Amino acid sequence: MYTLHYSPGSAAMLVHLVLLETGAPHVLTRVDLEAGEQRSPAYLTLNPHGKVPTMIVDGAPYAEAAALAMLLAERHPEAQLAPAAGEPARAAYLQWMFHLANALQPAFRLWFYPHDGGSDAAAVKDAARARIEAEWTHLDAHLGRHGPHLLGAQPSVADFYATMLMRWSRNMPKPATAWPHLAALAARVKARPAWKRLCEIEGLADWA
C-alpha cells in the first residue's frame, strides 16, 4: 500500500496517474498548498523541501515525481509502462525521463514563479517561454519521426510525464497542443481511463 501526498494539478499528477495505471493499492492525502500545509512541521518531516509529491513506500517517505513514477513502473512491471533493464528501448526511456525532469519541468517553474529567477521577472518569463517552446519543437519533431509515443509504438511513463507538462502549458500564449504531434499524443493519453479517473478524483475540469 502506497500513500501519496499530493495537490491537484501539481507534479503529483504523474505519480497519481501511474498508481491508477498500475492498479497499485494506494491512499491519497491532499496537501493544501494555498494554506501552506507543505510548510507545516508534520509535512516537513516527510519532505524537508516542502514540495509535493511525497509518497510513502514501505513505510518511508520519498520525493521527486519522475523518480517515484519510475519506481512504480519498476515495481509493477505487469503494467508494461517502462522497458525492463536490458530491453532495447530502456536507454531511450531513461533519456526522456531525465530530459523532461532536467530540461523542461524546471522551465515551467520559472514561467510560473519568475521572481525565483532574478529581479527582472519579465525577462525571466520570456526566457522560460522560449525554452519551453523550443522543447515542444524538439519533442514534436521526435514524435513525427518515431511516434506515436516517445518510445515508438509502446506507451510509457514518459508519455504520461510529457502530457502532464503539456497540460501546464494550456494557458500559455502558445500551448503544447499547437504542435500537431504533441496534440495527438495528449489526445491519446487523455483518452485513457486512468487519466479520466485522475481528473475526477483531483477535481480537474480544465484540460481533462
Concise account of the structure shown:
The protein has 208 residues and is of the alpha+beta class. It is 53% helix and 9% strand.
Note down, in words, how this protein is organized.
The protein is an alpha+beta fold and about 210 residues long. The chain has two domains: about 1-80, Glutaredoxin; about 90-190, Glutathione S-transferase Yfyf (Class Pi), Chain A, domain 2 (Up-down Bundle). Helices cover about 55% and strands about 10% of the residues. It has eight helices and four strands; from the N terminus they run E-H-E-H-E-E-H-H-H-H-H-H. The protein has helices spanning about 10-20, 40-45, 65-75, 90-110, 120-145, 155-170, 180-190, 195-200, and strands at about 1-5, 25-30, 55, 60-65. It has a four-stranded mixed beta sheet, covered by helices on one side. Helix 5 packs across helix 7 (about 180-190) and helix 6 packs across helix 7. The longest helix is centred in the middle third of the chain and has 26 residues, at about 120-145. It is globular and about 45 Å long.
